[in-house]
């Protein structure tokens, strides 16, 4: 299993890029999973569903299964948020894991940068950034980069800089 992150400020286009990148990579015959970090409360469950009722009643984990998919929800109930390695250990083996967010972690990353966002570059302050997907050349010119809309080139950067996991 290999791993690479997409890191950038909110509004840079990470999710949009991932949505275009995943079919490109799976089209090359790779199996791909993603891990997404959220900075806000979120819920994948719906009030009124049995699984939601189980969680609200205090279940630590709720697994829902059908003929099409299964999902495991874990309530932290005050426990600390798991670190990225703990979350990765929950995944089934695949060829490539794309991590969105976790920009402060030390895994290899591609910075997603959009000039109109008005935010500073994460590179060169983050030595884990190996390349950029951007609409403007990175400062200093030394960072390998591809255009945000050049999905084939971004996929090339992903495959070039993804690192084996566990490393």
Which helices and strands appear, and what pairs or packs with what?
Layout: E1 2-7, H1 14-27, E2 32-36, H2 50-56, E3 61-65, E4 70-74, H3 84-88, E5 96-100, E6 109-113, E7 129-134, E8 145-147, H4 151-161, E9 163-164
Parallel strand pairs: 1-5, 1-6, 2-5, 6-7, 7-8
Antiparallel strand pairs: 1-9, 3-4
Helix pairs in contact: 1-4
What does this entry look like structurally?
The protein has 167 residues and is of the alpha/beta class. The chain has four helices and nine strands. The chain has helices spanning 14-27, 50-56, 84-88, 151-161, and strands at residues 2-7, 32-36, 61-65, 70-74, 96-100, 109-113, 129-134, 145-147, 163-164. The strands form two sheets. Strands 1, 2, 5, 6, 7, 8 and 9 form a seven-stranded mixed sheet that branches. The protein is globular and about 55 Å long.
In short:
This protein is of the alpha/beta class and 167 residues long. Helix content is 22%, strand content 25%.
